Amino acid sequence: MRLRARNLAHAYDGLAALGPLDLVVEAGERLAIVGPSGCGKSTLLAILGGLLRPSGGRVWFEGEAPSGSIVPVAYVFQDFALLPWRTVAGNVALPLEGRLPRTEIRARVGAALARTGLSDFAGRFPRELSGGMRQRVGIARALVVEPGVLLLDEPLSALDAQTRELLLEDILGLTEGATLVWVTHNLEEAVRVADRVILLSARPGRIRAEIAVPVPARERNRPEAVPVLARLRGELWALLREDARRAQTEGPP
Amino acid sequence: MTLVSSAPLFIAQERGYYREEGLDAELVFFRAAQPVAVAVAAGEADFGVTAFTAGFFNLAGQGALKVIGAQSREEPGFDFSAYLASNAAFANGLTGPEKLPGRSLAITQHGSSFHIMAGLLARKLGVETKTIRMVPLETLQNMQAALKTGQVDAAILPGHIATELDRAGEAELIGWVHEWTPYALGGLFTSTRNVERRRGVVEAFVRAYQKGARDYHAVMNKRDAGGKRIFEADAEPVIAIIAKYTQATPEAIKAGAPYIDPEGRLDVGNVYEQVALLKEEKLVDASVDPARFIDLSFISGHFNLPR
Amino acid sequence: MSAREVRLRARGFAPRRLPGAGAVTAVCVFAAWEAVCRAGLVSPFALPAPSRVLAVLAEMALSGELLAHLRASLGRLAGGWAIGMLCGVLAGLAIGVSSLARSVGLPLVSALFPVPKIALLPLLILWLGIGEAPKLATIALGTFFPVALSTASGVDQIPRSLIRMAQSFDLPNRAIVLKVILPGALPGIFAGARISSSIALVLLTAAEMIGAEYGIGALVLQAGHLMRADRLLAGVVLLSVLGVAIGAGLGALERRLLAWR
Prior knowledge:
The structure holds three protein chains of three kinds.
Chain A: E1 2-12, E2 15-25, E3 30-34, H1 41-48, E4 56-62, E5 73-76, H2 88-93, H3 102-115, H4 131-143, E6 149-153, H5 161-174, E7 179-183, H6 187-193, E8 196-200, E9 207-212, H7 225-250
Parallel strand pairs in A: 3-7, 3-8, 5-6, 6-7
Antiparallel strand pairs in A: 1-2, 1-4, 8-9
Chain B: H1 7-14, H2 17-20, H3 33-41, E1 47-51, H4 54-64, E2 65-70, E3 72-73, E4 81-85, H5 87-91, E5 104-107, H6 113-125, E6 133-136, H7 140-148, E7 154-158, H8 159-167, E8 172-176, H9 177-180, E9 186-191, H10 192-197, H11 199-220, H12 236-246, H13 250-255, E10 259-260, H14 268-280, H15 290-293
Parallel strand pairs in B: 5-6, 5-7
Antiparallel strand pairs in B: 1-9, 2-9, 3-10, 4-7, 4-8
Chain C: H1 21-38, H2 50-63, H3 65-97, H4 99-112, H5 121-128, H6 132-156, H7 160-168, H8 173-207, H9 216-225, H10 229-257
C-alpha cells in the first residue's frame, strides 16, 4: 500500500508547526523521518495515522491493504501504550476483539507472540516486563492486525542502549517487506532502519533533505556497511546541526 | 433549654430572687433535654428543669436525681400541645383524638414527650398504647413534613405550629392534649447528693423558683370570662424577660406559653402513670421506681399523691 | 589524618506498619476501660464496662433483635450504596469523557457535594415519604458525590496515549469506554468506594431518623434518647465492626481487581 500526503500543514493555536509538505511512501518502502526537536516529526506521524486532523492538506492511501489486514495503519508508540490491566496476550488481542472469531484471535495472537519471542510471557502483566519486552508487546500488537503501513513513533527512545540495539535488529527482521514510517531523533538509528531518510527543518518542519541509503536492509549489519552508514549519519548531522542548535535555544513550542 | 417552660428560672434570675436567698446562680443552657439531666447527675449543674421522657426516668431511676417540683403542665383551658390529623386522614374519618387507635402518629422518638402523650391518651381510651402506631422521625420538621404529605395519619405538635398548619390548610387540628389528658410535662430536679448534703441550698433555690413561678402565674396564666387565654399589659415585663433568654418574639412567646403552677406543685400520680406506661413498653427499665426519685418534702401541696 | 566513619543520614520518614500493634492497642484500650469501670471511677449509666456492652450484644443476638437490626441496616446500606455507586460511576465517566457533561456536571457536583444530607431530610420526606425510599436516597446521595468526583479524576489519570492507542486501532467508542476508560478509572472508582462506604455508614444513622423501627442507626438514636448507654455503645460497636468489615471486603476486592498495579 502506498501512502501519500499533499500540501500537509499543521498549526497549534495559530503557530505554524509543520509544513506545508508533500510526501509519498511507496509500498514496501522503509522511510525514516528525522529532524531537530520540535520540528513536528511526531505531529506528521500522528496526521499520517489519522490521530490528528491537519490544519491543511490531505492524506490518502493507494492500493489494497494485504489480505487479512484488520486496520490499514498500525502505530507503535514511544511509551508502548500498553493497558496495564491486561496481560501480554490480552494487549495483543485488543485490536482483534469483536472483529474476528475467538479461535482465530487466539491463533493470531499466538503467532504474533511467537514471532516476537513473547510466547513464554503471554500471561504476564506489563509491569512484570522490562522496557524492551514491553515494546515487543507493542510491536506484536501492531503486527497482529497485519497493517498496510506501520507507523513507529520513536519506538526505541525510551530504552537503554543495549536493549535498543537488540530490539532494532529484531524489528528489522520482523518488518521485512513491510511499508513503514519510522520517526526518530537518532540519526544512526535512521540510517540503519531506512531505505530513505527525510530530514525536516526546524519549526515549522518542512522537508529539508532526502537521503537514500544505498545498502540493502539485510546487509546493514555487515562490517563493510559500517563506514557507509557512518558517512550518511555525518552528512545528516552536518545538515541538522544548525537547526538543532537553534531549536535548543528556542525551547519547546 | 431556652424554652418558655423554664420562665420561672429566668424571672428569678432577672428579679434577683436567687440573690435574696443568698444564692449566686448561673444559668447554663443546653440544646437538648438529655444533657440537662446528665449534667445534674454528674454534678456539673445543681438544678435542672426539663420535660419528662423515658430517658429522664431511666437516668433518675439510677438514683442520682431527685425530682423536687414541677415544670409546666397540660392544664385544662390552656392550649399547649395539639393533635393534628393529615388532610387525607381527616377526610378519611380521623376527626378527633378518640379515633387515633389504629392510625399512625408521628413522634420524635420512642419514649419522648409525644410518646407519653399518646400513651396517656391510649390509657384514657382504654386501649393498649401500641394500638397507636408511632413513627419516630427525630425532628419537628420531619414530623411536619410527614404530616403535610399524609405519610402519617397524625402528629402531636406544639400549639403555635399546630394552629399555623391548620390555618394554612396543611393539616387539620383535631383537639388539644389538655382536653384529653392533662398531665405533668416536666419537672424541677436536683442531684440526690444535693438533697442529702446541701438541703438548705435546695430549699433556698426552691423558694426563689416559686417566686418566679408565682410572677409568671400572676400574669401569664390569665383567662377572660369566656375562658379564653389573655395577656394584659402587666404581662409585658415578664414577656420581656422571657424574650431576653429565648430570643423569641412576644407573639411567639404568647403562642407557646405553657401553664406553670404558681407553687411548682407536681401532679405526682400522673408521673407514676407515665412511668408505668413506659415500663409496659419496655422503654423504662423495670427497676425504676418513681417513689425513689420524687422528693415531696420541698414543696407542699403536690397533687394527686399516690397512697 | 584521622579516619571517620561515614554516618548514615538517610534515616526515618519511612513509616511502616508494626505487625500486631493494632490488636495490642485495642486490647489495652478495652482493658483500661474495663478496669476504670470495675473500680467504680465512673458510673455505669455514664460509661458501661465493655463486658456489659458485650453482654447487651449477646442478649440482642439471642433474642433475634440483633439480626433484625443488622438485616434492616445492611439492606439499606447495600441498596443505597449500590444506587449511589452506579449513578456516581456513570456520572463520573460522563464527566471524564464528555465536554458537555464536564462543563455542566462538574460545577453542579462540586456545588451539591457539601450540602449536608441531614438538612435535606424534611425535603426527602416530602418527596419520597417515610418508607425505605428516603433512607435509601439519603445513603445514595451521600455516596453519589464522592464517587462521581473520584471516578472523574480516575478517568483524568488515564494516560491519553492509551486512548490514542485504542483509536489508532479504530476501536469503536463503546469498546474504548469499556476496555480502556472503565478499567483505567478503576483505581479512582475504588478510592470513591472506600470514602463513600464510610460516608454511607455515617449517614445510616441519619437515614434511620426517619421512621425506622429496626436498624443499627435507629438502635443508637433510640438508646441515646432512652439514656441507655450500654445499648448505645453496643450500637456503636456494631457500626465500627461493620465499618471494618466493609473496609476489609473492599480491600480484598481491590487486591483482586487491581492485581495488575
